[in-house]
Amino acid sequence: MPEPSNKENYVVGVDLGGTKILAGVFDGSLECVGSTKVSTKAQRGLDNVISRIERCVRDAVDEADLSIKQVAGVGIGAPGAVDFGTGTVMFAPNLEGWKDVPLKKDLEKQLGVPVFVENDGNIAVLGVHVVELKSKPRSVVGIFVGTGIGGGLISQGELFSGFNHTAGEIGHMVIDVNGPKCGCGNRGCFEALASRTAIFQRIKAGVKDGEKTLLTEMLGDGLEDLRSGDLRKAIRRGDKFVSKVIEQAAEYIGIGVANLVNILGPDVVVLGGGVMEALADEMTAIILKTAKDHAMPGTMKNVEIMVSKLGDSAGITGAAVLARREAK
Ligand SMILES: [Zn+2]
């Protein structure tokens, strides 16, 4: 085994999601050298989630054959509004009971390592921009479709976080004022229409209304263990109902892209997150077509719309980039 390098060479990136927590240890060249995943179990309460994050970090460090003392810093992407200065999660619509949570302070106490907290969408777009796009494009919009829809903006080559550090909450742009209720309290937000949660709700409601789908054959009538990958399997086996639901979600994402391109005129729009990773082949063409149909003429010219190859690792990668920048 090689001699462990000095501690400045290792950082840990954490992606705290509504469903699962991922942690990855990254070396000096931002290669992932060990990672772990645990479920979030947000319903067990705040303290439980924080100790699960701690355990996930420690396990990832152990996976990499390192000790926590060799880690210079931990970056965390959290699914909500974050006060970056204090590392407080002010509000997280997909984590029940999370309001003004001093995540940085709590985890620093438990881990004994500097911790830096950012919004998860900001973190993911940072990871894609720095590692996948080699920091080349000047302006990037990231749309990450998972439990919710995270967003992040790169402007002038840097993360753009706005006046209150809350910019880029594209999951909560309102697309249908009469649409379904969102975790943020509003109605018809982008994520209430096109996130995995929204897709699953539509499928479960359809099954209750008697829609025929292969999913009930695969998973039973309750569809308790439904995952994005099951949707792909069902579509590939010719499931018309699931195809229709996914088409509709892709159209909403296309409308989201059109709005963002109209407003921001980015060089690149990055699509990512678990849903895109599982269903890119099924969704990308529809997203592109809908975006072109709804954007102002001329605004989409030469704008690159791409699916991130980092997949589910975009969050931990970006969190590692943040930790590397901040941990001095
Ligand atoms: Zn919302």
What does this entry look like structurally?
The chain has about 325 residues and is an alpha/beta fold. About 40% of the residues lie in helices and about 20% in strands. It has a five-stranded mixed beta sheet with strand order 3-2-1-4-8. It is globular. It starts with 9 loop residues before the first strand and ends with a helix. It binds zinc ion. Zinc ion (ZN) binds near residues 184, 191 and 192.
Radius of gyration over C-alpha positions, nearest whole angstrom: 20 Å
Most strands sheet: 5 strands, mixed
Report the strand count.
Answer: 13
Structural class: alpha/beta
Shape: globular
End-to-end separation in angstroms reads 27 Å
Oligomer: single chain
Topology:
Elements: E1 10-16, E2 20-26, E3 32-39, H1 46-63, E4 71-78, E5 81-83, E6 88-91, E7 99-101, H2 103-111, E8 115-119, H3 120-132, E9 140-145, E10 149-155, E11 158-159, H4 190-194, H5 196-208, H6 214-219, H7 228-236, H8 240-264, E12 268-272, H9 274-294, E13 304-307, H10 314-326
Helix pairs in contact: 1-2, 3-10, 5-8, 7-9, 8-9
The structure holds zinc ion.
